[in-house]
Every structure is written in C-alpha cells, then in structure tokens.
Amino acid sequence: MKLVGIEFAPLCVPMHRRYEVLAGAGAFLSFAIGGFLGLFICLYLLFTPLWFLVLLYLAWMYLDRHTCENGGRTSLWVLNWRWWYHLKNYFPVDLDCVPGLALNAKLNYLFCCFPHGVLPVGPFNALASGCNKFHQSYPEFIVKTAVVPQLFLQPFLRELALGMGMISCSANSLNYELSRPEGGHIVTLMPGGAMEVYNVQPGKYKFVVKNRKGFVKVALRNGSPLVPVISFGEIDVLDQIEISGLRKYQEFFRKYLGFVPVIFNGRGFFQYSFGVIPRRKPITTVVGAPIEVSKTENPTNEQVKELHDKFVQALVALFEEYKHKYLLNPEEQQLELQ
Questions:
Q1: Is the pLDDT of residue 92 over 90?
Q2: What digits encode the pLDDT tens for the residues 269-292?
Q3: Distance from the Cα of residue 232 to its chain's centroid
C-alpha cells in the first residue's frame, strides 16, 4: 500500500518475516552504532554506584588486548545463535562454489572477499556462521573473519565480534592464523577495506584491488592458497547518500579510526521507502577455485606482482562467469578495478 509516496508493509505478515526484519536491523545497528552505545554506557555507569564495574571492564580490555591478534576467541554458542539463521533468511544469503571445489584440510586458506559493502553480511553468513552450507560441506575447517583492529577497542561490541570468530586484519594476526601447523583454518579478508565503502551503489561493481598487495605477501610467506570470493547483491541492500564536503571527514575517520561513516538509506520496520534497515535483496557468495601458493619466506616484488596479477585475473574471470547467473542485464554489468 502506498500513501503520500511511501510504500507501507502489509499488516498481515508471517511472524518469521518479522523476526527476519529484526535480525537484519539488529545486525546493522549493532555494528553501525554499537561502539558508540557501549562507550555511552561506560560513561554513564562511571557516575553511578556501579562505576567500579567500568574500571574492571577496562582493565579486562587491556589485559585481553592481544586476543584479536592471536587467533581470537570464537564462541560456538554465539556462532549458532538463532539470530544468524534469521539474518541469513532475511535477504536471503546463499552460497555457490565453483564445480569440484576441493579444499585440503592440511592447508590454511586466505579467502579474499569482494565487495566490502557498507557492512559485509554475505561472507559472514555464507562462510563463518554456524547455519550455512559451507560449514555443512567442509566441517573440518574453522573460519575466521578478519576485520579492522579498531573494532576491538570498542566496549562490549568487541566481545560480540570475538564471539563471532572475528580477528584483526593486521599482518601479525593473519600470519598467526595462516601459519597454524595443523591446517584446517580459513581466514576471510576484505582486501578493499574501508576504501571500498565509498563505492557502495546498487548495481555498480567496483573492487579496490589494484594497489592492495599486502594480502599477497601474507599468502606467500605462509604458503596459503588464495581464493577469490564475490558476493553478488552485497551492494544492492543499501543506497549511499553523498553530501558535498562529507568526503574529507570520511577520510579522517578512515585513516585514523579504520572505518568510514556513511549516510545510507534502506527501509524501515513498517515501510519500504526509507530507513536504516537493509533491503531484502538476495545475496549469493560465490567461492572461486584456490590459487596454489608456494611458501616463500621473503618474497620479492616480482613474486608478489606475479601472484597479484594471477589473483586479479582469477577474480575478473569469476565475476564474468557468474554475473550471467546472478545479475540482471549481465551484458551491461562491467567490473571496475581500482
């Protein structure tokens, strides 16, 4: 039903769809404002009889500061929350793999995921949560999600992130996880990082990868196969609103805080025209074929460039092959690399 240009949700909606909307809103708002909310709670409690709890928690954060660099602290209880099940079904998020995808449980893999999106829900729901087909197909693997280290400085939100299997995306953290001698570890990384958030516009696929070679060095030093991963539909769930003069402030946050504050528009709880909840748009995360990597303790620039070129070629080929399956008007959709 439309009223004064606003499309309202029907009154009779199945309860499971209400749960899914709550799951989508909760996921985005938790990471969009969760850090600020946690800081506000701490500041408020300092002026109450419970002030000592804040000091105890800050002491815990200090003592626990290296956990995100040393493999994290995954909680199977958190990964199997019903929340992720409803979140996966909200869009919905699905998984597709190249035919005959074979992963060696004795190796550790670096999954390089594109695009980043405002908040990358595709890679987590399709690969890392406890309610996805990847976990069912490859139960011998432990999947960790690499995120900006600044996330682990945010009160309370850091505990949720650690429970979800998130680790720092620093070189030391990646080396720790990918050098595990027993193998069977997968790290999902968004090489485009916060820079790729600038490119979030429905229907426009722009990957920041040309000058991103740090992940290639990490793969070479650990002999970890590189796997290109593309989440089709990730950029369609929200519109980014661009305002003149905003970019310089966004750059400040990106450089010093590791994230880009964006003004975005999606839908609301009871209407589909505007709001902070992502839209129901299908997201399919496609896992490409692993690129074998020979372990090289001190890779030269030529070796890094050679592997980087090989990865970019595989990434483009994966996009060109699967855009016909998951994008409307695939012939008009072109991948732009930055």
A1: yes
A2: 887 778 888 999 999 999 999 999
A3: 13
CA distance 295 to 183: 14
Mean pLDDT score of the chain, rounded to an integer?
A: 90
Task: Please give the torsion angle defined by the CA atoms of residues 49, 55, 58 and 63, in that order, rounded to the nearest 10 degrees.
Answer: -140
* 125: nearest Cα among 17, 231, 201: 231
Residue type at 269 in one-letter notation: F
Q: What is the pLDDT of residue 5?
A: 67
Report d(CA 294, CA 238) in Å as an integer: 40
Could you tell me the pTM of the whole model?
Answer: 0.92
d(CA 147, CA 190): 8
Asked if 193 and 167 touch (Cβ cutoff 8 Å), the reply is: no
Looking at this protein, which amino acid is placed at residue 167?
I
pLDDT in tens, 192-216: 887 787 777 888 899 999 999 999 9
Residue 123 contacts residue 190 (beta carbons within 8 Å): yes
| pLDDT per position as a tens digit, 217-237 | 999 999 999 999 999 999 998
CA-based Rg of the chain, rounded to a whole angstrom?
20
- Between vectors from CA 103 to CA 98 and to CA 106, what angle results, nearest 5°? 170
Paired sense of beta strands 166-168 and 263-265, if any: unpaired
Alpha-carbon distances of 298 from 63, 179, 189, 221, rounded to whole Å: 33, 15, 22, 7
Task: State the Cα–Cα distance between residues 154 and 30, nearest whole angstrom.
Answer: 12
pLDDT digits (tens, 9 = 90+) for 308-317: 999 999 999 9
Strands 283-287 and 226-232: antiparallel
Placement of tokens 């996966």 in the chain: 88
Asked whether the bond before 115 is cis by omega within 30 degrees of 0, the reply is: yes
**Residue 230 Cα distances to 55, 116, 234, 265, angstroms:** 43, 10, 9, 23
Helix/strand/coil for 165: coil
Q: Check: CB of residue 268 under 8 Å from CB of residue 280.
A: no
